[in-house]
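step 3/5: co-fold with calcium ion
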Amino acid sequence: MSLACIILAAGQGTRMCSDLPKVMHSVAGWPMVKHVVSICESLAADQIIPVIAPDMIDVREAVRPYACVVQATPNGTGDAVKAARKSLQEFSGNIVVLFGDTPLLTTQALQQLIDRQKETGAAIVVGGFVPSDAGAYGRLIVRADGQLDAIIEAADASPEQKAIKLCNGGIMLFQSDKLWPMLDQLRNDNAKGEFYLTDCVEMAAKAGHKVAVTEMPVDDVMGINTRAHLAKAEKIMQDRLRQRHMLAGITMTDPDTVFLSVDTIIGKDVTIGPNVIFGAGVVIDSNVVIHPFCHLEKVSVGKGAVVGPFARLRPGSTIGEGAHIGNFVEIKKSAIAAGSKINHLSYIGDATVGEKTNIGAGTITCNYDGFNKSLTQIGAAVFVGSNTSLVAPVRIGDGALIAAGSTITRDVPENALAIARERQRIVEGKAKTFRSFQEQIKKAKEHT
Ligand code: UD1
Ligand code: CA
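step 4/5: write tokens
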């Protein structure tokens, strides 16, 4: 059976109190809507159609390569689905309607909905759930035989209906041939004056169609309406990600303090200390050790490398096999080749570092002149002495030796020694005369 997914994301989400559309707020490094798209992809949906409001340019970007359709005015979930009709004219099969604000949805939950349709042959299958507080959720009116009669929105529910615990999780499956005629019959004579997609249930039941319900895990269908919900979703997602990585052979000393992104890739036998944060786009090869308090984003780290404690790896960097990046070292947009060591208090930005090079403590690449960023190219087996400034653009040839405290402004040839600092002077006995001079001044002052 073919599968099409319509992702509703046209609501502004006023309860977030934000200029950003609700579905653009991120959970584990991805905007919420991208999580929903990726779940649809995991079931190889034939079509994925996000529905957005006219001005949601960033949502369009976030759901690429899928083309969005626009709901001109937010007239309700039923009206939003209508916006996708044109794109699905040729489509026949299961249409699943999901919400862009449910980032914790899982492949299993979506599969459960499809399986239920297969078992029952129902025209509609609703993903139900039993939240701890039914609050504003739609209530499911289920008959003794399990058939669903109606969904009553909280705002329209009687006190008896409000007491019902089984609620609408917001994910619904429709057989395509039944869906479109029903949408045309929706009316907006309800508390919110909106066209509710949920009214299709009563319509289908009255027309004698089968409507089934399947209960889903509470977390999976959790809808994000406020920043407090967002924080709760982040916590649940982080726990899921930590579990997944630990089951795949990663050691975390204190998993509760490790923050991952959905797209974090970590190889086997990696050890991660406490308080490590993975932004989006990080790939860690096997046998890497990441010591406590590191921050990584859009970087790859090669086999057996050692990072931290207190290292910051910024976007566009690659750390080679067996390299060491130590404490208080910041690496930005740089390629550090295998076996190189940058162990203490350094900034390496817009640079390449060859194999087995040693960068001394306090080395700085001066990559920015206030207008332009320039490159620093450091060869293989180079030794850069401590407290060196490398003023880019500059090249250091293989095997070169840079004396500590140098400010390097010109290229250094292969195997050359570069010293760029004031020559040291020794003035014999000068310390002693300086001190006795100071003592005399002090005494003179005391006598006056
Ligand atoms: C909806 C359901 C409710 C269910 C709950 C689950 C309806 C009428 N109600 O209520 O039964 O228990 O979700 O979380 O469906 N949207 C549009 N265009 C619109 C209106 C909404 O695209 O005109 C999108 C929103 O961006 C959002 C989703 O649809 O992603 C749900 O809208 P929302 O207003 O949050 O619905 P609820 O009141 O939570
Ligand atoms: Ca909602």
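step 5/5: annotate
Residues 8-11, 51, 71, 74-77, 79-80, 99-101, 136-138, 151, 153, 167-170, 196-198, 223 surround uridine-diphosphate-N-acetylglucosamine (ligand 1) (CB under 6 Å).
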